[in-house]
Write a structure and sequence with these properties.
mainly alpha, 145 residues
């Protein structure tokens, strides 16, 4: 019985972190980036630096929780699954690595690398799409096997 509660809590933490991370990327790309484009360049740079500094701890916490709870969940679920499950899980994990990398890059202080700063919106769009595909794969893996 205690394992059932632990499993439930770990799955809830995993889902909460995933929704927080993906939702944050979608919000940043769809709302924050267009809003920053309407601000004068000097104010934009200061505001972006503040936003990134405030988002960084949450971003890294989300990644840490996803890694820990994901490992826990995988070890509980992986036994006895068919090869297609393993293949789709691998795709999901590769997409997650992509999202983690983008979150890490976007969480770096702006200004040090102007080329990276210019790519932030495109990187976030790619991470948002990957995140939505991860959610789709997660739902399929949970229900399809």
């Amino acid at each position: 019985m205690p394992m059932d509660w632990l499993t439930l809590v770990m799955q809830w933490l995993h889902l909460t972190a995933a929704v927080t991370g993906i939702g944050g990327v979608i919000y940043a790309r769809a709302v924050v980036v267009p809003s920053l484009n309407e601000v004068d360049p000097g104010s934009r740079a200061r505001l972006l630096a503040r936003l990134v500094a405030r988002a960084r701890p949450l971003s890294f916490t989300v990644i840490g929780v996803l890694l820990l709870t994901g490992l826990f969940n995988v070890f509980l679920e992986i036994k006895g699954k068919p090869p297609i499950y393993h293949m789709l899980l691998t795709v999901k994990l590769l997409l997650a690595i992509h999202v983690f990398a983008v979150i890490f890059l976007v969480a770096l202080p702006p200004g040090a690398n102007p080329a990276r700063d210019a790519r932030r919106p495109r990187l976030m769009l790619g991470a948002a799409i990957s995140g939505l595909v991860i959610l789709l794969l997660s739902a399929y893996l949970r229900r399809g096997f």
